[in-house]
Amino acid sequence: MNTKRLLLVIFVLLLLSSCASIEEMTKGAPETPEAPAEELPKIVAILPFQNETEERGLGNQVRRAFYNHFSSKPYRDVETSIVDEKTVQLEKFSGKTILELKPDEICAPIGCDGIVYGKVTGFKKVYAAVYSQMGVEAEVWMINAKTGKEVFRIKDSVTYHEGSVPTSPLGIIMTAVTTAINLRDIQQVRLVNELAYKFNEKVPSPKGVTTEDRPLIKEVLTNAKESPLGKGKIVRVGLDGEAGAVATYDIGNFRKGILMKETKPGIYMGEYLVMSGDNASDMPVIVSLKRPGGLESQWIDVSGFVTIDTTPPPQVKNIRAKGFQDRIEISWDTVKNISDLKGYAILRSEQPLSGYVELAKVELNLFEDKTVKPDTLYYYRVTASDQAGNESEFPDPSRASLISKEPVALSGEIKKDTILSGVFLIKGGLTVPKGLTLTLESDTRMIFEEDASLNIYGKIIVNGKELPVEFVSSENKKWKGINVDGGNITMTGSRIKGADIALLLKNADGLFENGVISDSNIGISINGIPSVTISGSIVSGNKTGIELQKTDAKIFQSNIFQNSEGIVIRNFSGEIKDNNIYDNEKNIISEPEVKLGANYLGTVNMDEMKVIGVVLAKAYDNKFPDGKIVGVISNPYTHLSQEERQKESTTILVEAGDYFRQRNYGKAVGMFEEALKAYPTAEIYYYLAISYQEMKEDDKALKYLKEGVEKFAKDSTLQKSL
Q1: Residue with more model confidence, 83 or 172
Q2: Domain 20-168+179-211 class?
Q3: CB–CB of 310/278 below 8 Å?
Q4: What CATH number labels 320-400?
Q5: Which one of 29, 226, 571, 573 is separated from 365 by 20 to 30 angstroms, measured CA to CA?
Q6: pLDDT higher than threshold 90 for residue 354
Q7: Which residues pair with 544 in a beta bridge?
Q8: Where residue 13 falls among pLDDT bands split at 50, 70, 90?
Q9: Which residues, 6 or more positions from 261, have their beta carbon under 8 angstroms from its beta carbon?
């Protein structure tokens, strides 16, 4: 005998010796002598079985199998679902586990006089190339709740070896119609079933009660292990039992009385097609076999519970596609709070609406597509799926293409709708004719030579929401800018810098949002009607921030600051509101006079707002959106000359000083504040702060000190007081 064969024989012998271990555990195991029949209870509850093995769910399997066979005995058995419900309630209200409670304490709410306990004490499952073995050992015992005496105790085991279990007709059929059941699954079901049968052969029957001749159920198999089952999947149930009867099955409380067809004598098959809207969790499969006009038997599937789930995961949000020189990266927001999320599918097409092909399935929210080709625009969609196979709705696609290593030179006129992604150098001018669209993708960079321009007579779309699209000059020389004449713009996330007129809009409509315009002679110039809406943008560091001429444009929620002129208006009929217009040399200049809505202009005092030709009734007292709308404080001394204002202030100060010396600080601050309107001085700020301090209003005192120091930085008294 060669070495390999010797080792194989030794291995098999070791397995055989381990096989005997389960059987040996029951040899000589003590069994309680049967109690007299008159001491047996009549109504019995079978409690959940303990599981002392590592095989998950085995305790429940053995318990259900025991219940199936025990139901043929002349006892009134309480349904396991009722027992489980009462068990949970008892443990909750008593603070004890069910095993810590006395039998009579358990039976009182359940309505029984006997209890069956059980525990699985051993399980072995070995698969090898030339040998397989499966064994299970358990112990059950019954207690009479009225007397507290143990009625019987039985310990037994069953072991199968490869080839020792012939394949049943039902097993052959079930393995043929579903991939969720294999021969080893059937072997375990039959193993547990046989152990339960052996137990019940030894369970004594109560005296004076006749056993009913119910239809025989030999075996039940289902595809419960295939759960969760989604739309279009089938719940399959097979039964091997008495021929010529009527078989049905219930899926818990979800569906009842599903008819089964007798395909061969004694072999019954049933199917339920999962439909849209079906949802059920952890439902037992209960099979019934009834003689026409006669008795009925029931059997609970021991292999597991059925879960039906037709609810798809939520739609995947914020799909982002970004092109690199050698790949396109696709990312998206993780789908959250879906416990059975299986993963994501990435789909790609060269068309926005159709032709999508699945590229891959992944578990993380990132994928690299390295199969892309240059000069091709790709569209991507991502869907989420769960364990039941439900798939989320298609989201709007994200698109991208490979970017070139060096800037691509562009000039002249585009001849068709064009989508650009990458870095481009504009020479002379690039023109979009009427009827055509130029689309610039996220993270695109447009570099303009001196005096170059982008001229839009058709439409421009800027998709800079994820990463901004930049329009900049080469070598820090001014370029002409983006000129839109009669065209349409949809520009999100643009960064325009270093132009003569960064964005010139003549009779153009559309939206410019979340953009930044800086370092230009004129940031935005809007002329004529129709006109655009400017929203959520920053205009800063320009000679003129925004220029409005004969237009009804709308400017909302934008920041216009640190320009020589913030907004210059000539004949305007639009809206300017909820903006922060501050820290410009002149915030707003209008000719003729114009009435505007509430904006933040650095102050609520009209004479400090740095506006000309503007009528304001309301303003924000702080930057939008934190500030509140308040009434504008108009200064009655604005029309006076500086000398006249100084005289008015001196007159008011005399009266304020009298109140101050009388310690009437309430009257004093009113007069000091009035004097401040007429002609502010460091002295007025100082006495205002002192007055508020004496009135224990330290916040106001500090406010006036800070404001005074800001306006009279060289005043030593204010500096020391602060």
Answers
A1: 83
A2: alpha beta
A3: yes
A4: 2.60.40.10
A5: 226
A6: yes
A7: 522, 565
A8: very low
A9: 268, 269, 270
